[in-house]
Design brief:
alpha+beta; Phosphorylase Kinase, domain 1; Transferase(Phosphotransferase), domain 1; 6-stranded mixed beta sheet; 32 helices; about 65% helix
Amino acid sequence: MSERPGIVPSSVAVGGSKAAAAPVLDAPPPRDVRRAADLSRLLVSGAALVVTVLSAVATRASARRAQQGLLDAATALPPGLRDGLVGTVQVVAVLAPVVALGVLVARRRGDALLRVVPAAALGALGAWSVTHLALTRSRPDLWPQALVGRGALVHAGWPSAVYLAACAAAVVAAGPWLDTRWRRTFWTLTVVCTGLSAAAAAIVPLEAAAALAVGGVAGSAVLLLAGGPADRPTPQAVADALVACGIPLAALRETPSLERRPGEGIRYSAETTAGARLAVRVLGPEDRNRDLFHRLARLTMLRHPADTAVQSPHAAVEHELLMLVFADRTGARVAEPVISYPVTGGGALLVTVERAARPLSAFRGDEEMTDQVLAGVWTSVARLQEHRLAHRALRPEHILVEPDGASRLTAFARARLGAAPDALGSDIAELLAATATHVGAHRATQCALAGLGPGLLATALPYLQPLALLGPARREVARYDQARARTAGAGAKRRTLRPGDRPSLLRDLSAEVVAATGAEPVPLASLARFTWRSVLGLIGAFLALHLVLPQFANAPAVVTALRDANWWWVLAVLPVTFISQALSTCLQMGTIPARLPFGPTYEVQFASSFLNRITPSNVGGMALDLRYLQKTGIETGAATASVGLQSVVGAVSNAVLAAVFFAWAGRHHAGVHLHLPAGRYVLPAIALILAAGGLLGVTPPGRRFLHEKVWPFLRAAASTVTGIASNPAKLALLVTGALGLPLIQVVGLALSVRAFGGDLPFAQVGAVYMAARLVANAAPVPGGLGALEAGLIAGLTALGVAAGVATSAVLVYRLLTFWLNVPLGALALGVVQRKGHV
């Protein structure tokens, strides 16, 4: 409890007599929510599952030997002891689910049963899939023999990993409806049974670990999709805490959910017996968990997040009470604090005086959000800035405006005294950007200038960047820019685009601040801990060490081969790289209804080819293409659809050309035969997809995700495809780029073979290239490095080309069409970055 003289207004009789009658409680029935704890458990379980699977797949021999050692230790136990352990596990495995179901039924937890059953089914399906796809081959060879002659109630191999995963998923799904004692009991039984099964050699250790991880993933996924009870105090507990801290409570009403903000607790409106109205904010463990994710996000993204240590709900409300008191003494208009107090169940509450007011975010249009209101807000912000108090959540929803236009700042939970310049500047930048989405960049800047003055306003210039707006303000700015981009392109679907045409509110605000304050333009502050350039650099360095450097062992062979080559044919291969990028440019221009400029797009394709050399599956190039399209003003959904359409069209064109070349070349030559055990993967993959689709379709959060995320993306993609299909010129560019890209590569390979004296028909060269490309596409390495060379050499020698000629031709071909893109693409990447194209 926090009580200080001068904090509590006289209208609130704190410490007075309790109300004669029980307070009136007005709160809606409890609602199911998606809890941060379930997301945390999902991430941890998923990471454990990935580590387990990678250990089994990447180090299969080592995993088999390690598990064989554990198996030898288990088989060395006395047979009676092993059978006793297995029997104990089997008895518990039979009785524990029955007891758990009995507890849920006795407590009438039907909503829990609706989560437990699908979670158990999903856990069993996931464990079966993981076991058969990844873990079977890492089993010790002698493991089946260790089960011969052993048993208890049933065969010694039961309970299996599938059953244990189902039990673990059921425990996770039922956890929110169980008290701590029962939850710990069932978790202990599940973990102990799994450990004893592994110790008695009834189950392979890696499969035991995978079962627990799969159960955690399945149970958490069901809770996130279907929802669960929130870890927050009940309205009755809140009322009891208010009465206990001396407030004569007459009525307590929970505010509507539309006014509630995630991670900021539950808000109540309270009325005392004297008629005073209070605003009560209640924090619980759920809010602490959500705040932990906020801190982790800032710690990951920012160099200096300036976050305090994780606080309990009681410590958090006491900190906010202190910040409100200090902010009030700076001269800023803030919510008037009353008291903080703990609530039963690990929660805490903060009480402030409630006034008739609306949040600034509820204002619409110029008539309501007047210059007087905004200037008053900025005047309070100026008082905080002068005393180095950073609010660190300065958004319109945290500003309450009274009927007379006076405003008050609220939500000081993340406020910090003696704040660093980046926190202070980010406060101004965040509120400036948020208000600009309502009144425009010019008016927002002029109102800020009136309240702050030019000196303080100019300090926001280095922080007018997306990373400084970590939170809702960042999303509001993105939506504002997307709406402007859609409006700009609504009447001109075939307009010519230019890099940098995309509207940018932050860029406009920077220009307005410079003009209003007379300050010199300053570079943006370096806030990011990691950037996409540094990440790509690290990935490229890793791949260079493990993939590129071994290729230099072939350098002497290339030099020797070039001495005996026909230089005219070798030089004929050189233009293939430049023609390939021109065809790739045509492909991208053909997937956008609007007109892209050829020159910048050609430069970006060279830069993309460089990134594709250091990232697998062309991920780097696709990301750069997406960023380039967004910079030109194309909506994100349409840009993503364009990049995806390029991949789909490329795959279809490769399949068509492969069929044509295979049919053209005939079947009288021995070819490369591939055996892909797809049957082993198809059924589990289909089952997992159907399970995920079912969860999305039958749960409200899943349907909301489909409605808010999936369908808008599909509509944007359909609009893009429709615009392309109705334009013959776009279709011509699309077909030219899609078919020309693989054809020009075949031409380059044929010219390289001819340069070394090889005499192979063009159809057969095309068949070899398409077959090798299919093999290389399955390899998770950049550009099929190593796999494509091996496939080409094998195919050429199988068709009668001498081994030396085939090797030399492939090495020179890859040097001029693959490695030449590295220096040219790196140069192009620097050029497009300096020009602001990406």
